[in-house]
TrEMBL record:
Pfam families: DUF3667. InterPro entries: DUF3667. The lineage of its organism: Bacteria, Pseudomonadati, Bacteroidota, Flavobacteriia, Flavobacteriales. It comes from Christiangramia oceanisediminis. Keywords: Membrane, Transmembrane, Transmembrane helix. The chain crosses the membrane at residues 91-109, 268-288, 300-322, 328-347, 359-383. This is DUF3667 domain-containing protein.
Length: 384
């Protein structure tokens, strides 16, 4: 397609992109690199140019993947030495690999945890065991009308349907009434007016708000913050509304944890993307006497993490196919060996120094990973 568009009859004397004067012998603009052609685009030109770009990227992609897999540390060394056109950009390549990895990872996470649904006694009659006298049936139905459905559901979730069937009527009545009373007592016991909260220290005030909002939500099941804050006669501040919404979110995640897991996993590629620069800072400190600047350590960290995603992504694929955990176990040992070889080649130190720094680096990685995970979980929950 480019050959057709670059023939002499379509060449111009000015670059259409940067307006640099050109000779008819110039096939490309020496300033911006655009093809020297005045031919109008057709549908054929558009699609051919699109696929040409894809295949051109694939060529670099295949070369990058091949070197990354079988030559630990070489791609990073080539890149910092200026051999960059032959390889894909390390940051874009990392993002592509991480997104594919977490898509595969999502297939292996068991997100089908069935949660206890609220029980409607009109639709779920098994509690009325066969042979139960009519008088006792009527008594239980009166309990349903007198007590909140939430208290009955809590009794069912705590004891289980089968154990409830075997209980006498008096025990069922006591359990439901006790649960209903405890919900009311919890809400009343935790009630604190806004004026009193305003006099507390920050942490005590937050603890009091959370306890109160949780008790109120448990009793009333009101999820709208406007209604809840108004009912509690608290100030309609942005912080009060945000805190009540977080209490509601936490209650939702307790019932359906897969919602937050899905949300958090979807953000992990970007969380790790911002975590790696911090990790690269510690690599720089560890190799302070070596002739590498911070950016060169960062490139090595991105290439290594990309290899991690590729290796474990392949392990997950094999695990899905054969339904066994040994591919992931094998990937652990392969990656550790790969990391050692990569450090040895990239930094050019002897075996003893490389092994020692390898152990220190892994310790630093796990400590930072734990800290980053805690911060990321809190941040993800706060903006959910």
């Amino acid at each position: 397609m480019k050959k057709e568009r670059s023939i002499m009859q379509y060449r111009g004397e000015t670059c259409l992109n940067c307006h640099l004067p050109l000779d008819l012998s110039d096939q490309y603009c020496p300033n911006c690199g655009q093809l020297n052609s005045t031919k109008k685009l057709s549908f054929k030109d558009f699609f051919e140019e699109f696929f040409s770009g894809v295949f051109a990227y694939d060529s670099r992609f295949q070369r990058t993947l091949r070197v990354l897999l079988f030559r630990p540390g070489k791609i990073s060394k080539d890149y910092i030495n200026g051999k960059r056109m032959r390889y894909a950009n390390p940051f874009r390549f990392y993002l592509s690999a991480s997104i594919l990895f977490f898509l595969l990872f999502g297939l292996t996470v068991d997100l089908n945890n069935s949660n206890q649904a609220e029980v409607d006694f009109e639709d779920q009659p098994p509690i009325f065991a066969p042979g139960l006298p009519d008088a006792e049936r009527d008594s239980i139905r009166e309990l349903i009308e007198e007590n909140s459905l939430d208290s009955i559901n809590k009794v069912l979730s705590q004891r289980g349907m089968d154990s409830i069937k075997s209980l006498p009527l008096s025990r069922i009545q006591d359990s439901i009434e006790t649960e209903a009373d405890s919900i009311t007592e919890n809400y009343l016991d935790n009630y604190v007016p806004q004026s009193e909260i305003d006099t507390m220290h920050f942490w005590n005030a937050n603890k009091t708000r959370i306890e109160l909002y949780s008790a109120f939500l448990d009793q009333t099941r009101i999820r709208n913050s406007e209604i809840a804050i108004d009912s509690l006669r608290h100030e309609h501040s942005a912080y009060n509304h945000w805190l009540y919404k977080k209490v509601v979110d936490f209650d939702t995640f307790k019932e359906e944890p897969n919602l937050f897991i899905n949300y958090f996993v979807s953000k992990l590629p970007f969380i790790i993307f911002f975590y790696l620069p911090v990790f690269a800072l510690f690599i720089w400190l560890l190799y302070l006497r070596r002739p590498f600047n911070y950016m060169e350590h960062l490139i090595f960290a991105f290439h290594t993490q990309t290899m991690f995603f590729i290796l474990y992504g392949l392990a997950i694929l094999v695990k899905i196919i054969i339904d066994s955990n040994w591919p992931v176990t094998a990937a652990n040992f392969i990656f550790l060996f790969y990391l050692y070889k990569g450090m040895r080649f990239f930094y050019g130190q002897n075996r003893v120094k490389t092994i020692l720094k390898f152990l220190i680096l892994n310790l630093i990685f796990f400590i930072l990973a734990i800290i980053a995970a805690i911060i990321s979980l809190l941040a993800s929950f706060s903006i959910y």
